[in-house]
Design a protein that fits this description.
mainly alpha, elongated
Length: 135
């Protein structure tokens, strides 16, 4: 894949993750987290660490899922691989916190793990679909 294709993959993947999280974090994730660990949440959120995560995570999705899928294969396979990566990444965060932070709940784990799994699958599919369509 050429540099332009990789750039398209990255921009679309990162864009889907950022836009979807901008909608889901305040409406889906934050209320659950506030209910269980609201006293330890940063207010306002620290944008620099969040930006580092998003930039790196989108790159990881492109490298591990999207680039290998460009040469062929179904978008269902891309979705499955994205879901596995999302479950691994968000699961690492959630299960580590459940093991180490007082007040962390199974509801938080289930909500964020499900979100991260679906979000990563959707972002990977969108990136690959757009990159394939553009050529």
């Amino acid at each position: 894949a050429g540099p332009m294709t990789i750039l398209i993959l990255y921009i679309v993947t990162a864009g889907v993750i950022l836009v979807a999280d901008a909608i889901a974090l305040p409406t889906l994730i934050k209320p659950v987290f506030e209910r269980h660990v609201g006293d330890i949440l940063a207010d306002p959120i620290r944008l620099a660490p969040a930006a580092v995560f998003y930039l790196f995570y989108a790159a990881a999705v492109v490298w591990l899922v999207s680039l290998p899928a460009l040469d062929g294969g179904s978008l269902w396979r891309v979705a499955l691989n994205g879901a596995v990566l999302g479950a691994a990444a968000y699961g690492t965060y959630e299960f580590t916190n459940l093991a180490t932070i007082r007040g962390w709940s199974w509801q938080m784990v289930a909500t964020d793990l499900t979100w991260g799994t679906l979000l990563t699958a959707a972002a990977a599919v969108a990136g690959v679909a757009v990159a394939r369509a553009v050529g």
